[in-house]
Design goal:
Blueprint lengths: L36 H10 L15 H14 L5 H26 E5 L14 E5 L13 E4 L15 E7 L4 E5 L2 E4 L2 E2 L24 E2 L4 E5 L9 H4 L2 E2 L3 E11 L2 E6 L1
Antiparallel strand pairs: 1-2, 2-11, 3-4, 3-11, 4-9, 5-6, 5-8, 6-7, 9-10, 11-12
């Protein structure tokens, strides 16, 4: 009788060997073939595969690559709907805060309550005032400014409101009037914003050519364009630069229609 010798060793239960699944990989996928014992042991202990450290999943074989891609796919899953909505809510909130900040600190709209600035500004006109990046030291003759109510103002009209007037003379300049004409530092003040032969109304009090009014340092002499009726520095003196809120830059609404005129 011929003896038949077994050429394959019987299956031995124990640690994983080549061809057996490596526990610790994602989903306990099929066997990982072609790995060395050390690499197989590292995969079994750490759960990391070639794809986890920058290699391609295909390097491990198709089935093994798909199994190893489990945790990576989970990490790269698209953000949830709740997270996306939260992101949009945060962006919208920041936009609203930015718009509020621009309105409060950069620009502010004012409405004209009286006729003291006619014909430039009528009652009910809307103006835009620059508040941010504003430096009253850089004001020039002819600029229109908004400022807090002067404490010495006793003219008729709403008390405690902000006023709008035009800068006539700067700090340190001299001013007087003669024959209905204003003179600043001895020169006739050019006023192209007024109609020809516009009446001055009350003169500069106590000021003559020989003894003009000296505008104190840090203060401005302001007047309304409707000189005949305007209550301005002729009645309550020059205003301090620190009380100026901002400079008028745009006329938004004039009369009964939008205007968008820049000053």
């Amino acid at each position: 009788m011929r003896r038949v010798w077994r050429t394959h060793a019987p299956r031995i239960r124990g640690p994983p060997v080549y061809g057996q699944p490596i526990r610790g990989t994602a989903g306990h996928g099929p066997a990982i073939h072609g790995m060395g014992e050390r690499a197989a042991h590292r995969a079994a202990v750490t759960g990391m595969t070639t794809a986890d450290v920058g290699g391609a999943p295909g390097d491990l074989g198709g089935a093994a690559g798909r199994a190893a891609g489990g945790p990576l796919a989970a990490r790269k899953a698209p953000p949830s709907r709740r997270r996306m909505l939260a992101g949009w809510a945060i962006s919208l909130s920041l936009a609203v805060l930015l718009a509020f900040g621009i309105r409060t600190f950069a620009f502010e709209a004012f409405s004209i309550p009286s006729t003291s600035m006619v014909p430039t500004l009528n009652v009910g006109d809307r103006i835009l005032v620059l508040k941010a990046f504003f430096d009253w030291h850089q004001l020039r003759e002819g600029d229109i400014v908004v400022f807090t109510h002067p404490p010495r103002d006793h003219c008729r009209g709403p008390a405690g409101t902000d006023l709008v007037k035009r800068v006539i003379a700067l700090p340190g300049q001299t001013l007087y009037s003669a024959g209905g004409i204003l003179y600043v530092d001895g020169r006739r003040l050019r006023e192209p914003y007024l109609p020809p032969h516009d009446p001055l109304g009350p003169p500069i009090p106590g000021a003559t050519r020989q003894d003009p009014f000296h505008v104190p340092r840090g203060e401005f002499y302001v007047m309304g364009d409707n000189r005949a009726i305007s209550c301005d520095s002729r009645f309550w003196g020059p205003i301090k630069g620190s009380t100026i809120i901002g400079r008028v830059v745009v006329l938004l609404w004039h009369g009964d229609h939008p205007d968008f005129r820049f000053f």
